[in-house]
Amino acid sequence: MTSATLRHSVWILRGNPLTAVAAAGVMLFVLLAIFGPWIVPYDPVVSNVSEALLPPSAAHLAGTDQLGRDVFSRLVIAARLDLTIAVSAVGISFVIGAVVGAFCGYTGGKLDRAVGRFVDVMMAFPLFVLAMAMVAALGNRIENIVIATAIINLPFYIRFARAEVNVRRNVGWVEAARACGESHFSVVLRFLLPNILPAMAVQISLNLGWAILNAAGLSFIGLGVKPPTPEWGIMVAEGARFISTGRWWLVAFPGLALMMAVLCFNLLGDGMRDILDPRMRT
């Protein structure tokens, strides 16, 4: 990042406190994901039945679960897994979807129509149900969750890139690039894709939050990550059985972590658009 871009980013964040708070929240989750194993006070998978279902206290900031495991430690370690799934899935779907959509929008013709119909068919299905079917068929392993989440995110990027490139493919600077001898492949990758990235930044941020929610939802219904691996969806599912007994912390803390992660990524979208959009630079 250049110094000018850094100054522009700071200016945007100072002018939009909500975006600054969301960025701080995302950074906090990233730091927890990176340094979590070194800052947690207890092993997140070791049971201690003698301390089961203890309420929040100085010894256990978020209480303990039915097996005596520290809830706070499990929350922190779960951030790494959930963010890894989300970033991997969105990264795969963004790269493939943006390239495929950009070439379809640039070339048009039969390929464009065929891809467009394929995307329409995919979006006709409830996407979470489609993810459930794929994970159930492939097996509930982490890599299969990533693949399923990436596939159901593909239509968003294909449609978005296709539409954005379609309205830019005949503008003056694209014609100038072709006149200078640039190949069609080079025009798409070097000129059109970087130009539509600011417009796609909002979609990327929204999809990151949705991917976290999707992974947690699959785990909640038993199709995601397998216990005893710490994961927010699993923690909510396990804690739901104890709501009626007053053990509120088993659901409240993982649910709050999940809500805050999704909210921060959603709020960060507008800020990313303003930071990356060259038209906002004055």
From TrEMBL:
Keywords: Cell membrane, Membrane, Peptide transport, Protein transport, Transmembrane, Transmembrane helix, Transport
Compartment annotation: Cell membrane
Keyword S-adenosyl-L-methionine: no
Residue span(s) of domain ABC transmembrane type-1: 79-269
GO biological process: peptide transport; protein transport; transmembrane transport
Domain of life: Bacteria
Keyword flag Transport: yes
Pfam families associated with the record: BPD_transp_1, OppC_N
Membrane topology: Multi-pass membrane protein
Cellular compartments per GO CC: plasma membrane
Main localization of the protein described in the UniProt heading: membrane
Entry's transmembrane regions: 20-40, 83-106, 118-138, 144-160, 204-225, 248-269
PANTHER family, sorted: D,D-DIPEPTIDE TRANSPORT SYSTEM PERMEASE PROTEIN DDPC-RELATED (PTHR43386:SF1), OLIGOPEPTIDE TRANSPORT SYSTEM PERMEASE PROTEIN APPC (PTHR43386)
Family of this protein: Belongs to the binding-protein-dependent transport system permease family.
Protein name, entry field: Peptide ABC transporter permease
Organism listed in the record: Bradyrhizobium betae
